[in-house]
Amino acid sequence: MVTREDQVLLSLEQALSARISSEEVKRWLRDYAIPFHELMAYYRCAMMKVETKFRILNENISLASDSNHIESIKTRLKSPMGIIDKMIRYGQPITVNGIEESLHDVAGVRVICSFVSDIYLLAEALLAQDDVKLIERKDYIMNPKQSGYRSLHLIIETPIYLQDKKKYMKVEVQLRTLAMDTWASLEHKIRYKKSHEALSEEADRELMECAEICAELDMRMERVMSSSSRMKEEGR
Ligand code: GTP
Ligand code: MG
């Protein structure tokens, strides 16, 4: 039977083989295979913890407002290939400690919210927790990327409790609305379909305009939601 550990090691070996000599791969696996596997397990624990934090917040906030604030949550662990490529891009030696220190997005949690206001509500509630430390915040909703990309990105650090120790782990959290997520998924597909060739200026402009239409949709949905909840409160 192929275990999860075998699969991780196989894809790690493939990632390394494409980039360093077979002698170096052997040495790397001898020195780092076990610590790498452990580190990935710690990142999985940290993702589980952060996902649970959002599920608890959703339950709790929904009690007061009688509606869900989160549409869905996705978690992903960066692949060995993605990790090695990024370390090479950063010009860092590929060691397990180096990966932990240099990369902030090995563990990713994406929270798809109903409305823009839910994004800020959930982010503030998460950051107010005792065991969550903010490392970096990038607000691509207030300041969209040149591509038109919108989301709120947080790099946080939180402890996981292991059998005999407490370990602080970094997690990248991306909060976005359904409209922002739809745009980002399709834009990614369109942009990377052409295997990293640049898109035409016209296609870039179209994508940017689509992002603005999504932002307009979010704003109008938020307005409808606020005015209908005001009417409900006033008993109209
Ligand atoms: P990298 O992590 O190397 O990408 O650089 P960075 O740390 O400066 O990244 P940033 O925080 O700006 O964005 C990281 C992630 O956000 C990416 O891995 C994507 O998931 C998402 N993202 C950022 N920009 C875009 C974009 O223009 N289009 C799409 N579809 N996703 C984006
Ligand atoms: Mg990043």
Give the key terms.
binds guanosine-5'-triphosphate; 236 residues; Beta Polymerase, domain 2; 5-stranded mixed β-sheet; binds magnesium ion; globular; alpha+beta
What do these coordinates show?
By secondary structure, this protein is of the alpha+beta class. It has one domain (4-233): 2-Layer Sandwich (Beta Polymerase, domain 2), CATH 3.30.460. It is built from seven helices and five strands. The protein has helices at residues 4-17, 22-65, 80-89, 96-102, 116-127, 178-193, 201-233; strands at residues 70-77, 107-113, 133-139, 152-161, 166-177. It has a five-stranded mixed sheet with strand order 1-2-5-4-3. Strand 4 and strand 5 form a beta hairpin. Helix 1 (4-17) crosses helix 2 and helix 6 packs antiparallel against helix 7 (201-233). The longest helix has 44 residues, at 22-65. The mean pLDDT is 90. Bound molecules: guanosine-5'-triphosphate (GTP) and magnesium ion. Guanosine-5'-triphosphate binds at residues 105, 138, 145, 147, 149, 153, 184, 187-188. Guanosine-5'-triphosphate (GTP) is lined by residues 105, 138, 145, 147, 149, 153, 184, 187-188.
Whole-number count of domains: 1
> Spatial order of the strands in the main sheet?
1-2-5-4-3
| CATH-defined superfamily | Beta Polymerase, domain 2
> Architecture, according to CATH?
2-Layer Sandwich
